[in-house]
Amino acid sequence: MKVRTQFPHAVREIKHTWIPLADGTRLAARIWLPTSALDSPVPAVLEYLPYRLNDQTAVRDAVQHRYFAGFGYAGVRVQIRGTGDSDGVILDEYHQQEHDDALEVLAWIAAQPWCSGAVGMIGISWGGINSLQIAARRPPNLKAIITLGATVDRYEGDCHIIGGCILADGMLPWGANSMAYNATPPDPAVVGEMWRERWLERLERTPPFVEKWMTHQRRDQYWKYGSVCEDYSSVACPVYAVSGWTDSYHDSVLRLLEGLSCPRKGLIGPWAHMFPEEGKPGPAVGFLQECLRWWDEWLKGRDTGIMNEPMLRVWMQDWVDPSAAPHFRPGRWVAEGHWPSPEIVQKRFALDAQGLRTEPSNETRLDHLGQQSNGLDAGRWGSGGRLELPADQRAEDGRSVAFTSAPLHEPLEVLGFPEATITLASNRPSTLVAVRLCDVAPNGTSTLVTRGLLNLTQRDSREHPTPLEPGQRYSVKVCLKSAGHIFAAGHRLRLAVSSTYWPWAWPSPEPATISLFAGPESWLILPVRQGRGDDPELSDFGPPEIAAPPHVQERRGLVGITINRDTARGLSQLTARNDRGGYRKFVDDGLEYEATATDTFTIIDGDPLSAAVRCDRTMMIGRGEWQTRIELTSRMSADAEVFYITNLLEAYEGNTTIFAKTWNLKIARDGV
Predict the structure, then answer these.
(1) Whole-angstrom distance, CA of residue 70 vs CA of residue 32
(2) Which of 303, 332, 370, 416 lies in disulfide reach of 527, CB 3.0 to 4.6 Å?
(3) What is the mean pLDDT of each run of 10 residues along the chain (672 residues)?
(4) What per-residue confidence (pLDDT) applies to 382?
(5) Pick from 159, 156, 8: which is nearest to 71 by CA?
(6) Rounded to whole angstroms, how far apart are CA atoms 198 and 564?
(7) Which residue, among 543, 301, 281, 525, has the nearest Cα to 417 in the 3D structure?
(8) Pick from 620, 622, 617: which is nearest to 586 by CA?
(9) Are the C-beta atoms of residues 77 and 65 closer than 8 Å to each other?
(10) C-beta of residue 553 within 8 angstroms of C-beta of residue 373
(11) CA-to-CA distance for 107 and 196, rounded, in angstroms?
């Protein structure tokens, strides 16, 4: 990655400013400006997040927003109400208050003497999601957005629920992250002597977000609010949607291209949940240069040619030997002029007792009792791309009902959403199915391509779940996550079906045997990209480059997964460590930041009610004699009727405990 030090514009950084809101609340902001902006106003690029801008995201903010400022834009980074140094209390993610505040922020930016009146928004994850939500409000000064690693459906596509299944590897871990972030103090160097009073108010009044999420286990109005898929036509400004195949949010790119009618483009690389200029697995690309082309087109009115290029550009992935930490994913860039593409056709494979076949034989009943520990090789949901990706799937395949094709005579190129139609019955009123599509190499290794989950009580409706009638046959559709993958000649396709997938899907209350009816009524449908010779020549993204980061001393935290099995007890334990940011000390002002995170998932085979999650978080923020720390332990378990969630939060100033509170929650199961 190249660090650029010379820019067309000299840059001035305003390290702190307050943005006043109508109700008297002040939001903390940091701004990077071309020094000439007061004489020649420029468009602005806003990033609007709950994460701490002085320490948690300070490096990332500087290398991006300083870069934009160097090319003639005002980079504006704002903290959401109730987070970091901003006033107030945050009540939930994507709350209406967050969006209402954003409209005032956009108006404030547009009215500044250094701003031309045109504003864009950029963000990844939370910032990518709220940029879509705010665009749907149609503020007059918001002229375009770049949304990365986002979702269009808060129920189906975020970190809480997938296919109607509680995402054990997302629901509580993300709830713990949010609670830990929200519990950190404002910086006295910014807010002054009132910092402790405001910190205590925040600690006492900020709710555990997980309570709200778990109270809404079906797709009700709570989840519909902020889901732009409810009305794509509400988004009118141009949208550039970006993600990576390793990012759990990548479906949104294709969904947005299909659903929106405004000017739009899509980009999907091989990356995990990160910006493409630092993308892992590689290849990383010169994404900030691509952003400038988008901003020049829509904020400055220059014809950059970007809208004359294909609507969708993706990294078509070749097979790779399964690895939890690949540095590079082989493949090539391909493009589609429109999406959905007329060049994509459906290819059907029957789920047959003899494997995946183009022509099915007679129906065969295959019974399957899921092993509760199945899924431990799934990798982490929302992986950061470091030692957290799916391992070889052969063991998981063996714990599933697997349908494997004959070796392919020629390559098969898949782009889009695979779908499985499965005819089945269950001996219990509540169960789930996990469906995985794998690429089986000639040496037998099994590489995960994509997967999908379905809570069978939601087979007909996400809003109105209904129990299964034990023994009754049902035909269900499981939509797998989108994929861009080439199955090479000589490789085989494998579709694996199971009724358990821990710790992704929270297990059903009772062990369930599902009966799969292989034959003419069960199918895998693949979106196949037809051969068209060489793809049109595509312009190069250029090498990755950034602005120089601030001077920090840092130490990377621990990342990785360990799995332990007690065969005598049938107990399996997965421990995942992902220290978010590790340790940093900012040399300019002495601010220190450190975060550690450990998630532990345990289950006993044969006992779905043994499933338990524990999340431990520690965050330290200090400067000189001012030292603070928060410690959080969150736990989640369930019996047949109720989920039990406990959050224990402690806050320290130096070695003195200034706050301690336990939240004990009991929430009824609702068809899960």
Answers:
(1) 9
(2) 416
(3) 95 98 98 98 98 94 98 98 98 98 98 98 98 98 98 96 98 98 97 96 97 98 98 98 96 98 98 95 97 98 96 96 85 96 96 95 96 96 74 96 98 98 98 98 97 98 98 98 98 98 98 97 96 69 95 89 95 92 90 96 98 98 97 98 98 97 98 96
(4) 81
(5) 8
(6) 43
(7) 525
(8) 622
(9) yes
(10) no
(11) 31
Backbone angles phi, psi at 194, to 5 degrees: -80, 5
Please give the Cα distance from 439 to 104 (Å, whole number). Answer: 50
Decide: helix, strand or coil at residue 369.
strand
At residue 540, the pLDDT reads 84
CB 374 within 8 A of CB 364: no
Transcribe 334-362 into DSSP letters.
EEESSSS-TTEEEEEEEEETTEEESS--S
The angle formed by the CA atoms of residues 92, 95 and 96, to the nearest 5 degrees, is: 160
Map residue 541 onto helix, strand or coil: coil
Alpha carbon 364 to its chain centroid, in Å, reads: 39
d(CA 462, CA 120): 34
Residues 396-445 pLDDT 10s:
999 999 999 999 999 999 999 999 999 999 999 999 999 999 999 999 99
The predicted pLDDT at position 199 comes to 98
Cα-Cα end-to-end distance for the chain: 46
Using CA atoms, how far apart are residues 337 and 237, in angstroms rounded to an integer?
A: 20
Residue 433, amino acid = V
Peptide bond into 283 cis (omega under 30): yes
Q: What is the DSSP letter of 392?
A: -
Beta strand spans in 163-258 (E): 165-166, 239-244
Query: Tokens 């494998």 map to which residue?
Result: 494
| Helix, strand, or coil (residue 306) | helix
The answer to whether the CB of 499 falls within 8 A of the CB of 489 is no
The size of the chain, in residues, is 672
DSSP 177-200: HHHHHHTSPPPHHHHGGGHHHHHH
The two three-digit tokens of residue 243, written as one number? 């993600």
Roughly what angle, to the nearest 10 degrees, separates helices 96-111 and 126-135?
80
Q: Which residues, 6+ apart, have CB-to-CB distance to 474 below 8 Å?
A: 423, 424, 425, 456, 459, 468
Cβ neighbours of residue 376 closer than 8 Å, sequence gap 6 or more = 502, 503, 563, 572, 574
* The two structure tokens encoding residue 405: 């094709």
Proportion of the chain in helix, strand, coil states, percent, rounded to 5: 20, 40, 40
Separation of alpha carbons 490 and 232, rounded Å: 42
β-strand 264-269 against 239-244: which pairing, if any? Answer: parallel
For residue 503, whether the previous peptide bond is cis, meaning omega lies within 30 degrees of 0, is yes
How many CB atoms are closer than 10 A to CB 656? 7
Q: 616 is written with which tokens? A: 């431990």
DSSP secondary structure letters along 503-540: TTBPPPSS--EEEEEESTT-EEEEEEE---SSPPP---
